[in-house]
Structures are given as C-alpha cells and as structure tokens.
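Format notes (please read before filing issues)

Several people have asked whether sequences and structure tokens are stored in separate files. They are not. Every record keeps both together, in the order shown below: the sequence lines, then the token lines. Line labels are part of the format and must not be stripped during preprocessing.
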Amino acid sequence: MLRDVYVDALLERLDDKKYRDYAFEALKIFRAETCTLSDNNGIEIPFIDIYCQLPKNMELNFIDIIEASLAWQQILLGKLQYGFISIPDQAKKDADIEGNNSIISNLVNLYPGQIIEANFTGGNFGADGYIEFAKPPISKKTIFPLEVGYCKSDQIMTHIFQNQCFARFPYDYAFIVIFEDTEFKPFEIG
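Then the structure lines:
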C-alpha cells in the first residue's frame, strides 16, 4: 500500500520535465560512478546495499534505482550526511528478533555515553527498531529509526519524510550506517 503511494508520487513527479531531466541525469551519474560510502578508514559499502538491499534472487526495479540515484545526489551535495557504527556481528534473519535485538541493544554497552538506547522489534510496518544517541551524531537528530536486513527505497523514503533520518544495518556487513537529511525539503530538485 505505502509503496503504491510512493510509486504514484514518483510517476507524477516524472511528468514534470524539469524533475524528469534531473532524475534521469541523477540516474546517469549513479550508473557511471562507483557509488560507495566510506569512512576513509577501511569501511566501505555500496550505496545500493544501504538504500534498497534486496534478496539475492530479486532484481532492483526502476523505481528503487531512480530513488537511489536521487538519494545519491543528496549525498554528493552534502545534504544527506552519514556516519558508521562498527559492531561485532552481522544482522540475523528478520525472524530472529531475539538475535537482532541482542546485537542492537548491545550498542548501549559498546558505546557508553554515546548511545543511550537501542532496540530491534522487527515487523513489516514502520521501523524495525531505533537507535537513540545522547547527542546528535551528525547534525540535529538523536533518534534514528532502524531498518535491518533487506530494504526497499520506500521504507527509507518514509523515514526521511517522517524523521529526516534513518539507520541501516544491512545483511553481510558488521556495521550500521546512520543518515540525516540536514536540509530536508520534500521533492527538492538540485
């Protein structure tokens, strides 16, 4: 249902020539570059694994690629800022609520005085959990909704629109990436 709303909104925006030109230019840049997030200390992750990591047997659809391309532009412009949180384990399957909650809730012990609360509740609606910081780690936000494992662009967009931030703990990585949209304006071009 929510995905349909985002698809309809994106298709409506693509009717506007200025927006369409911007979106397709963003797509061209996204396809031409190696779009990797890095902490400059050896941690790297392809941006696509953050923005819309899907099961290995599924292919990304056009909507997810366009949304990821537009978000990458926000990274390049410095509007969508990010940071890494190293952890000693990788995400468990979605159904392993106890295992994921153990990993996430342990962030309070790993980062005392920095992370004051963290949990994983799982589920298919809303965030999988959240991470709360004592002080804003990026700009203004202290509570970051968390998505663990596979994720589509509409889930991320929901968090950006509602909270201007999100945290991602994708499969196959031993870190969480937090993001904050420091200049949030819905559907802004450029």
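For reference, the curators noted about this record: The first helix runs from residue 2 to 14. The chain has one domain: 2-181.
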